[in-house]
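[recover] target loaded
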């Protein structure tokens, strides 16, 4: 009888050990399958082809650019002039600048009006970071014009998802 009891105990221990081994094996298989699935996903979707979302965004950008080149030009004059001071060789110098933005998309012109405080802030920071001597050259003014255009379009892209300004026009540029 004692032998029968020992057989039952060893049989129960064998069943418990078998269940533990089975659980461990199942967890290991699931971890391996998950890792393999993640590796396959990264391998298949990290190629040179843009994902479908990126392709859709590029298509919208292409359509927005097509719209921007068609139709009459719309101008938005920034009412208040920008005034920036510089310290050059111990003397106080000033730049007064009036700007007009050019676009062919009325929606983006309206977006500029909505986000004008953010745009003006960005432009004041841009203008005040310039070198007074460089702004006296034509190349410096062209570079400033391009930087201002990029600044405005970056803000519009952040806020509306699309840039829309084609050009920045300096309608008044006084340095003293």
């Amino acid at each position: 009888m004692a032998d029968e009891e020992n057989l039952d105990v060893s049989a129960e221990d064998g069943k418990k050990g078998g269940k533990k081994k089975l659980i461990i094996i199942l967890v290991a298989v699931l971890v391996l399958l998950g890792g393999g699935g993640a590796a396959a996903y990264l391998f298949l979707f990290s190629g040179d082809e843009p994902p479908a979302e990126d392709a859709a965004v590029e298509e919208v950008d292409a359509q927005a650019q097509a719209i921007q080149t068609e139709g009459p030009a719309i101008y938005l004059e920034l009412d208040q002039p920008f005034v920036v001071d510089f310290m050059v060789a111990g003397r106080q110098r000033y730049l007064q600048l009036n700007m007009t933005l050019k676009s062919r998309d009325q929606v983006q012109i309206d977006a500029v009006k909505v986000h004008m405080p953010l745009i003006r802030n960005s432009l004041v920071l841009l203008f005040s970071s310039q070198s007074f001597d460089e702004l006296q050259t034509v190349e410096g003014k062209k570079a400033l014009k391009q930087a201002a255009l990029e600044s405005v379009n970056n803000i519009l892209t952040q806020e509306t998802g699309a840039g829309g300004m084609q050009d920045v026009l300096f309608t008044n540029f006084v340095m003293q």
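[recover] notes: The beta strands are 74-77, 82-88, 91-103, 165-175.
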